[in-house]
UniProtKB/TrEMBL annotation:
GO terms for molecular function: ATP binding. One of its GO terms (biological process) is regulation of DNA-templated transcription. Residues 188-417 form the Sigma-54 factor interaction domain. This is Anaerobic nitric oxide reductase transcription regulator. Keywords: ATP-binding, Nucleotide-binding, Transcription, Transcription regulation. The keyword Ligase does not apply. It holds the Pfam family Sigma54_activat. The keyword Oxidoreductase does not apply. It comes from the Bacteria.
Length: 514
C-alpha cells in the first residue's frame, strides 16, 4: 500500500535526495503508470527534484512555467488537473519517457496537482501515462491524498534541512547527506558525489574569511563556484569584483587594480578608483591568476600583505578590506618551481586550495547538465521537445570533455542548430543523434597525448596520464553499462565483474559514479 510505504520511509533516516526518490518511486510502482515527477518551484521555473520513468537528463532541465502551459495550469489551482488523451497542450515530458527511448512517443494522459506547505506553493506532482487509456476516476479521486503524502515528506525534508543548517552554523560538522543540489540559489547543476562533496566543503569555507584558490581545467565552473562562495559568505551584501588577469594589458594592470590619480600618466584625466577599492568589504575574484606578470604579482603581494593600496601617482595609502578568491587552470605550484609565479604570493592565495574536478569525473552529471542545456535550447529555439537518443546519451557519457561544461553547453547548442538545419521540424519531438553532437572522440584522444611512438621523457609522463585517464574512462563505461543491465544492483555488478564488493565501491567512488 502506498501510504504505508511512505509512512515507513518517514520513520527512517534518509538523506533528502533519497527520500524524494523513494517517494516518487513508490508512487510510480503503485500506479504502474508511465512516469512520475516531483517538481519544485524556483522563481519562474519548475525544477525536477525526483523523477521516475523519465530519461536521466530530465533532472537537469528547468521548466519555465510560462513556456509550459500544462505546468502553469497545474500551478494555477489546488485541485487535481487532468489532461486527457488528445489534449492539444504540449506536455513537458514529450519525448522524455524512459520506456520509449527508441521512439519519441508523446505523453498521452497526464495528471497533476500543486503541492503546498501551509499557504505557500512548493511545486507540483505530475503523473503521466503513455497508454491511450485515461487514468481511472479512482486515481483522480485519490490525488489529494497522494498530494498530502508528498507534502508531509517535503515538510520533513525541510525540517531536516533546517536542523542540519543549525548544526552547521554552530560548527558541528555534519556529515554530507547529498542535498547540496537543492540550494535555493542554485545555479550549479549536478548530483555526483564528487560535486556534492565539493559544494559541502565550499559552504564551510565560504563562512570563513580565508583566501580560496580554485584550480581546475578550463570550463569546470570555477567562476560559478567563486560566485557561490561569495553568495554564501558574510560578504554577500557587498560586491564581488571580477578581474580577468589574462585580459589585462601589462601596462594597465596597476591602474586597474589600484586606481590612479589625475595626471598619473598621459590619459589619466581624472581620479579613478581601482578594482580593490570597488571590492572593499566584499570579494575580489582574481580569475586566471596564473597569467599575472611577475611585476604585477609583486604589487598584488604588497597590497595583500599590508591590507592597503596606493592609487597610481598618489602617495596616500588607502585601507581596503577584501577577501581574495583566485582561480587558475594552470598548475601554480609547477609555475612556482619554474620561477613564473612568486612562491610568497602563491602561499598567500592558496590558504584554502580547492581543486575542481573535471566533467569526466562527475559520472552522470554530464546527462543532467545536457538536460539543463537541452531545455534552455528548446525554449530558445521554440522546439516542442528536444531530447537525446540513447546513442547520443552514450556518446556524451563516453566523451572525455577537455573543455568541460562550457564545451558541453556549446555542443548541445550546436547540435540543436544542426538538427534544424538538417530539416528537424520544431513542432515535432526532435531527437538529437550522435551525428548532431559531432563529438571529436578521436582528436580528443590525440589531444590527451596517446601516441604509441612517443619516447621523450615529458611525452612519457603525459602518456602515463593519458593512459590512466583512458583506463578510467573504460572502467566508468563498463560499470555504468553493467549497472544498467543489473537493475542498478551493485552487488550484482560486483559479481558480474568478478570484483570484491568493497573494492567496487571504492573504485566507483574514485570514478565519480557513487
Ligand atoms: N555545474 C554547473 N551547472 C551549470 N552550469 C555550469 C556548471 N559549471 C559550469 N557551468 C557553466 O559552464 C560555463 C563555464 O563555467 P566557468 O566560466 O565558471 O568555468 P571556469 O572554470 O571559470 O572556466 P575558465 O577556466 O575557462 O575561465 C559557464 O557558462 C557556466 O555557467
Amino acid at each position: 500500500m502506498l501510504v504505508h510505504q511512505i509512512i515507513r520511509d518517514i520513520a527512517c533516516e534518509f538523506p533528502r535526495a533519497v527520500r524524494e526518490e523513494r517517494l516518487v518511486g513508490a508512487i510510480h510502482t503503485w500506479l504502474n503508470c508511465g512516469a512520475v515527477g516531483l517538481l519544485k518551484q524556483a522563481g519562474e521555473s519548475l525544477t525536477p527534484v525526483a523523477v521516475s520513468g523519465l530519461v536521466p537528463d530530465t533532472l537537469g532541465r528547468r521548466f519555465e512555467i510560462v513556456k509550459h502551459p500544462r505546468l502553469a495550469a497545474i500551478l494555477a489551482q489546488r485541485t487535481p488537473v487532468h489532461f486527457e488523451p488528445g489534449n492539444p497542450l504540449p506536455d513537458p515530458y514529450d519525448g522524455l519517457l524512459a520506456s520509449h527511448l527508441g521512439e519519441p512517443l508523446p505523453v498521452h494522459d497526464c495528471l497533476g496537482i500543486s503541492l503546498y506547505l501551509g499557504d505557500t506553493c512548493w511545486g507540483v506532482l505530475t503523473l503521466d501515462s503513455v497508454d491511450e487509456i485515461p487514468f481511472p476516476r479512482s486515481v483522480i479521486d485519490r490525488m489529494p491524498e497522494i498530494a498530502a503524502c508528498c507534502e508531509a515528506v517535503i515538510r520533513l525534508c525541510r525540517l531536516e534541512d533546517e536542523n542540519r543548517a543549525l548544526h552547521l552554523a554552530s560548527r558541528i560538522d555534519d556529515e554530507l547527506t547529498g542535498d547540496g543540489h537543492l540550494d535555493e540559489n542554485r545555479e550549479i547543476i549536478g548530483r555526483s558525489p564528487v560535486l556534492l562533496r565539493l559544494l559541502h566543503e565550499l559552504d564551510i569555507v565560504a563562512d570563513s574569511d580565508l583566501p580560496v584558490l580554485l584550480s581546475g581545467e578550463t570550463g569546470v565552473g570555477k567562476e560559478l563556484l567563486a560566485r557561490r562562495i561569495h553568495r554564501k559568505s558574510s560578504r554577500a551584501h557587498a560586491p564581488m569584483i571580477h578581474v580577468n588577469c589574462a585580459a589585462l594589458p601589462e601596462s594597465l594592470i596597476e591602474s586597474e587594480l589600484f586606481g590612479h590619480v589625475k595626471g598619473a600618466f598621459s590619459g589619466a584625466v581624472a581620479d579613478r578608483s581601482g578594482r580593490f577599492e570597488a571590492a572593499d568589504g566584499g570579494v575580489l575574484f582574481l580569475d586566471e591568476v596564473g597569467e599575472l606578470p611577475l611585476i604585477a604579482q609583486a604589487k598584488l603581494l604588497r597590497a595583500l600583505q599590508n591590507g592597503e593600496i596606493q592609487r597610481l601617482g598618489s602617495d596616500k595609502p588607502l585601507k581596503v578590506n577584501v577577501r581574495i578568491i583566485a582561480a587558475t587552470n594552470r598548475d601554480l605550484a609547477e609555475q612556482v618551481r619554474g620561477g613564473e609565479f612568486r612562491a610568497d604570493l602563491y602561499h598567500r592565495l592558496s590558504v584554502y586550495p580547492v581543486p575542481v574536478p573535471p566533467l569526466r569525473q562527475r559520472g552522470d552529471d554530464v546527462l543532467l547538465l545536457a538536460g539543463y542545456f537541452l531545455e534552455l535550447n528548446r525554449t530558445r529555439l521554440g522546439f516542442r521537445s528536444l531530447r537525446l537518443s540513447h546513442q547520443a546519451e552514450q556518446a556524451l557519457c563516453a566523451y572525455s570533455w577537455p573543455g568541460n561544461i562550457r564545451e558541453l553547453e556549446h555542443v548541445i547548442s550546436r547540435a540543436a542548430l544542426r538538427a534544424v538545419s538538417q530539416g528537424a521540424i520544431r513542432t515535432n519531438i526532435v531527437t538529437l543523434e550522435p551525428r548532431h553532437l559531432d563529438l571529436d572522440i578521436v582528436s580528443a584522444q590525440e589531444q590527451s597525448g596517446i601516441s604509441p611512438d612517443a619516447d621523450e621523457t615529458p611525452a612519457i609522463q603525459e602518456n602515463i596520464h593519458a593512459m590512466k585517464e583512458a583506463v578510467e574512462q573504460f572502467q566508468r563505461q563498463l560499470i555504468r553499462r553493467t549497472l544498467a543491465n543489473s537493475n542498478d544492483n551493485w552487488a550484482e555488478v560486483a559479481r558480474k565483474l568478478e570484483l570484491d564488493a568493497s573494492n567496487l565501491h571504492k573504485l566507483a567512488k574514485r570514478l565519480g559514479l557513487k
